[in-house]
Structure formats: structure tokens, C-alpha cells
Amino acid sequence: MTRDTTPTGGAPRTPEVRSVDPGSVHVLYEPRATRVVLTGEIDAELGPDLLEAAEDALTSGRPLQVDAHHVTFMDSTGLAFLARLASRSRGRRVTLIRPPAVVKFLIETTNIVQLLDVVDEEPALVAEDDGPQPA
What is the CA radius of gyration of the chain? Predict the structure, then answer.
């Protein structure tokens, strides 16, 4: 509830509005993995986009990475997204990259952390050619 009060002897104040960081999800197809990048508030409003992103990422057939370091809020919609990826990834572990404290708390509290490989640093890039490198 916002209050619009008029200070004594002054003009009406404008109501304060909380700044919201809208959420987004993007699927990036990299040579060795499919990366899902989450930003902002991951909540029910983003639900349809998360479902679409999950299907796109899962059909790529590549290892899955979820970059969460720009997430500012996550509710059960985001948790369900992570669980969906992990349970449908055909035996491959999903890597959760740089999750903020709010995400770590949620995945640990709900035990979804057991389904994911959580890393606090950017994974090393794998060269296109896996053969030996010249000395």
C-alpha cells in the first residue's frame, strides 16, 4: 500500500515506488555446452519464458550450464526450472555458475543442490580441438 500524503504547507508528495529488476532468461549455444543466463527477478512472471528456455536447452543435447550470478530474487518458479533441467538432462549434471546467496540458500534448503554441480567461478573454456597442444 502506498500513501500519498501532503506535507504541511507543501505540494503533494509522489508515492514511492519500489524499483523492480525484471527477470530475463537467455539460451546461448556454445561449442561445448548450452548456457542458460538468468538475470533479475526469477519468478512466476517469467514462468512461460523459463519453460521455453528449458525445452530449448534440453533439446540441444549438449551439457547444460546455468549462469545465475545476476539473479536478484528467485521464487519456486526458478527452483522448479532448475529441478526440471536437472531431472531431464539425460544423465548429465547441470552446472550452476556463480549463484548469489539468495539462490544458494534456496537450493540448499530444498535439497535441489544435490541435483546440480555448483561452481563459484567461470568454468574454463574447452578448446575446439581436444587433441594435444603443440609445445
Answer: 20
